[in-house]
Design a protein that fits this description.
The chain is of the alpha+beta class. Strands 3, 6, 7 and 10 form a four-stranded antiparallel beta sheet that branches. Helix 1 packs across helix 2 and helix 1 crosses helix 3.
């Protein structure tokens, strides 16, 4: 897999959120975590936006209302793939529109000429960074599931603390809130859950978590 130009910062942010180094661990002779692996996880939590109306912001100029700036609606997540292949603006007929710059920090498109408030539609894709991070932490926990607690010579060694930390971070990032899909005519919302099972600890096994493995899961965007 080739790392796409617009994904460099996304991968760096996912590494920061998950403390995932490129040579962290090798499992069954597979090295974790490469850029390819992290991009693949991000793609599993990608949302495609098709012709979503941008929000025009008019202003006064020489006694007239003019429009140069169009804001991105709040339902579009922060982590948009900033690549002309996947980020574009079209008019009400679906024709490509040019002559604008994208401000990723303030989340608007700034046009060079007055549009007079004409309809502008957004096509892009963005990533649910929180659920991608939850997925990585869940898999990191799986890499450590064989660790155990043991006592010898009066000394205690809690090797499974790494596992516990991974699961705590998984829970922190996964969250409970479902969100609506913003794709036209889908109406998807909600969250899927599962029980934490299969590991003997003193923690209650009744806590619920997202599966962390399917694209249909929705959660809080970041």
């Amino acid at each position: 897999m080739t790392i796409r130009t617009g994904m460099t910062q996304h991968i760096l942010e996912l590494r920061r959120m998950t403390d995932a180094s490129a040579t962290e661990v090798k499992v069954n002779n597979v090295q974790y975590w490469t850029d390819d692996q992290l991009q693949g996880i991000l793609d599993a939590y990608r949302h495609d936006v098709l012709d979503l109306p941008l929000l025009p912001a008019s202003q006064r100029e020489a006694g007239n209302d003019v429009t140069y700036r169009y804001y991105i609606p709040d339902e579009v997540g922060t982590w948009i793939e900033n690549d002309p292949l996947y980020l574009s603006v079209v008019d009400e007929n679906g024709n490509a529109v040019s002559g604008y710059t994208y401000d990723s920090i303030n989340r608007y498109m700034l046009f060079t000429t007055n549009t007079s408030g004409a309809t502008r539609l957004l096509r892009c894709r963005f990533f649910d960074m929180r659920l991608a991070a939850a997925r990585v932490w869940f898999e990191k926990a799986g890499h450590r599931v064989a660790l155990i607690n043991w006592k010898a010579g009066g000394q205690n060694l809690n090797e499974d603390q790494e596992y516990q930390h991974c699961m705590a971070m998984f829970q922190a990032y996964s969250g409970n809130d479902g969100v609506k899909s913003i794709l036209p005519n889908t109406g998807k919302q909600g969250a899927r859950r599962l029980k934490k099972v299969g590991y003997g600890t003193t923690d209650s096994p009744t806590g619920y978590y997202p599966t962390g493995t399917e694209q249909s899961i929705k959660g809080p965007f970041a």
